Amino acid sequence: MQNLGLLYALEPALDQIYTDDQERRDAEMRHLSFFNTNPYMAGFVLGFVARLEETSDDARVEKLKKAMGAAFAAVGDASVWGSLQPACAAFAALAAVAAWSVNLGGAALICSLLYLFLFNAPTLWMRWHGIALGYEKGEGLPLALQEWRWQEKARWVRRAGLACALAAPLYLLIREAGFVGVGPVVPAMAIGAVVVLRRLEFSSAALFGLCVMGAIGWRGVTALL
Amino acid sequence: MIVELVIGGVGAALLSLDRTLIGQWMLSRPVIIGTVLGWFLGDLQTGWWIGLLLEAISLDGEPVGGVIPLNGTIAVSSILLAALGSARLPLAAAFPLGLAFGVLYRPLDERLRRRRDVWTGRFASLLREGKRAPWREAYATSFFEEFAAAAAVLVIGTAIAAKLVGWMWEIAPGFIRLGFQDGLAVTPLIAAGALIWRLVRKDGIEI
Q1: Fewer CB in 10 Å around end: N or C, chain B?
Q2: Across the interface, do A203 and B113 touch by the CB < 8 Å criterion?
Q3: What residues in A contact B194, CB-CB < 8 Å?
């Protein structure tokens, strides 16, 4: 359905570029072909395609649109779905632990709003600014984006997220079970085991199911004994 | 109360439109829906906590290409509606129920996607006939179908399933109930491990 979304967003530009009805309809038909990209990067592609519609022939528009859609999908998937979203979740978890430890009233609301802000501030900027930038830079867009060092920024977001994701359970374990002794070791090993099992493609839902089955078995055996 | 279930289910179904059709501002993420539903159902802390757990668990899969991950919106909503709504199901029973809803919703998600794809063909034939694209009809139909499916699952599905699971919970032997409680107790560890793995995994960007 992303082809329809792109066409809907492009329609005002197509109305301006093509004064002839048949030409506009031909352009609309072209944009009904398969199109896919990351939703948060769509603004860049949209501005880029609008610029191409003004300056290039039909075949070139179609070819470059698909190429840019795929390239931006890769960048967006890695930086938004792969880095920003889990980092926001990790930050929310750490904020939750911090708020809980100081008995902060309204912590749930504050953390939820913080989560929304952390995710939406950069992505809304990308969506909105991307349209203008895509249109302004045209075919120079990939070079302009290269200068932004997406990969490096996404890597830092990911590292920050990982630090939060590690700090939250660590703080809880130390607070609940003490800094020394075997108390925090077992839960920490369990978290490590989950990481290893996730690596082996076990889903979290499946792991939950396995834990329940194991616990039922254990409880059943101890009840019998 | 049935009114609570209907308002909660319909509200969550409206927010679930944010997942793919409107905005994608993360309003449909479990941590947000959990907080909102928890507040509405009178237990903000539980709603937020369950939302946070589901947030990490639902990050297992990315919505990339044709991949349809576990529906965290449906999962957290059904857990909270079953546990904090009129059914008052114990959290240890409501959690696996909601997780099952989230997993089982995926084929319906896929079906809804396929139904939306039909619009491309319809648009093409209308444009060939020289007509303008029926945007309002396409969007209204897609929004309604997505909303109606989520609302039906959350209101009717949760009501029936919570009743059934509640009855089974009552007659289940003590060791089974304890097993489910143990499962819920280790869920934060699973969620923490899943979140760490999500951030460590190398997919395109190396740590």
Answers
A1: N
A2: no
A3: 194, 198, 204, 207
Report the distance separating Cα A132 and Cα A25, nearest Å: 25
What is the pLDDT, as a whole number, of residue A187?
Answer: 82
pLDDT in tens, B1-46: 788 999 999 999 999 999 888 889 999 999 999 999 999 999 998 9
| Across A199-214, average pLDDT | 91
Residue A166 has φ and ψ, to the nearest 5°, of -80, -35
| Whole-number Å distance between alpha carbons of A65 and B4 | 48
DSSP character at residue B132: P
DSSP string, B134-190: -HHHHHHHHHHHHHHHHHHIIIIIHHHHHHHHHHHHHHS-HHHHHHHHHHHHHHHHH
**ipTM (interface pTM):** 0.89
Determine which of B110, B117, B195, B203 to mutate to test the interface with A (most A C-beta atoms within 10 Å). Answer: B195
What's the pLDDT score for residue B116?
86
CB A184 within 8 A of CB A178: yes
CB pairs under 8 A between A and B: 215
pLDDT number for residue A144: 84
